[in-house]
Amino acid sequence: MIKSSQHTCKNGEVITIRIASTKDADSLNALKRSYINTSDYIPLTAKEYKYDVAGESEMLSVVDLHQNSLVLLAENENGLIGNADLTGYQRKAMHHVAMLGMGMDIAWRNQGIGSFLLERVIVWAKQSPLQIICLDVYDENTAAKALYLKYGFISYGIVPGYFRHGNQSYNLNRMMLAL
Ligand SMILES: CC(C)(COP(=O)(O)OP(=O)(O)OC[C@H]1O[C@@H](n2cnc3c(N)ncnc32)[C@H](O)[C@@H]1OP(=O)(O)O)[C@@H](O)C(=O)NCCC(=O)NCCS
After folding, report:
1. What proportion of the chain, given as a percentage, has pLDDT over 90?
2. What is the Cα–Cα distance from 91 to 26, expressed in whole angstroms?
3. Which of 64, 132, 160, 163 has the lowest CB atom count within 10 Å?
4. Kind and range of the H or E run holding 93
5. pLDDT score recorded for residue 27
6. Sorting pLDDT into bands at 50, 70 and 90, what band is 1?
7. How far is it, in rounded angstroms, from Cα 97 to Cα 179?
8. Which residues of 96-120 are buried (b: 16+ CB within 10 A; e: fewer)?
9. 176: in domain
10. pTM of the entire predicted model
11. In angstroms, rounded to a whole number, what is the distance separating the alpha carbons of residues 25 and 29?
C-alpha cells in the first residue's frame, strides 16, 4: 500500500498521485478515451476500448482484490490527468509478472508526471509479490521509451511490423524491469 503523494511538475503546478477506487470509474474512463484518441502509439481506437463506465468500475474492484495489480492516478484540482496500471497475471506460473500501461492527457505530457507515476509504481511493486514488470511499446514512441529507459527498463526484443496504421507499419518493443 502506498500513500498519496504530491509532486511539482515542470510547469510549477502541484499534482497528486494516488491509488484509484471504484469512484474514479467515470473520470478514468473519460481520461483513457481522450488519450487513446490523441496518441499515435496506442494500438486501439476509443471505439474499440472494451470498458464502459460500469466495466471500468468492475475492473477497478477486481484490481483491488489482486495483490499483484494496481491502478495509480495523477490528478489536479480539475480532475484526472494521467494513469499508470499494473495488470498482474493471475496464473500461478506468472503471478510474479505484471504488464504496465500508462497514459497522460495531451495537455499534460512532458511535465514530468509520467516519471512521478512510474517512480510510485516501482515503489509499490517492490512491496508486492511482483518480480518483473513487462511492457509493450511502439519502438517509434521515443517519449515513452525515454521514460522507461530512465527507470531501468531493458529492451528484450523487437517484432518488426507488429502494428499497422493504414499503410504505415510500426515495430513492437518488449521491455522489462527486474525488481
Ligand atoms: C508516454 C507518456 C506516458 C510519458 O508521460 P510524460 O508525463 O509525458 O513523461 P515525462 O514528462 O515524465 O517524460 C519522461 C522523459 O521523456 C523525455 N522525452 C519526452 N519526449 C521525448 C522524445 N520525443 N524523445 C526523447 N525523450 C523524450 C522527457 O524529456 C523526460 O525525460 P527527463 O525527465 O529526463 O526530462 C505520455 O507521453 C503519453 O501519455 N503518451 C501517449 C500515450 C502513450 O504513448 N502511452 C505509452 C504506451 S506504451
Report:
1. 96
2. 29
3. 160
4. none
5. 97
6. confident
7. 10
8. ebbebbbbbbeebbebebbbbbbbb
9. no
10. 0.96
11. 6
pLDDT digits (tens, 9 = 90+) for 93-142: 999 999 999 999 999 999 999 999 999 999 999 999 999 999 999 999 99
Q: Which residue has the cell 521491455?
A: 175
The answer to whether 104 and 35 have CB atoms below 8 angstroms apart is yes
How far does residue 109's CA lie from ligand 1's centre (Å)?
7
Q: Which domain holds residue 83?
A: 5-128
* Residue closest by Cα to atom 33 of ligand 1: 112
Q: What is the DSSP string of 22-60?
A: GGGHHHHHHHHHHHHHT-TT-S--TTT----HHHHHHHH
Round to whole Å and give the CA distance between 100 and 102: 7
User: CATH no. for residue 38?
Assistant: 3.40.630.30
Pocket of ligand 1 (CB under 6 A): 35, 39, 41-42, 102-104, 109-115, 135, 137, 141-144, 146-147, 150
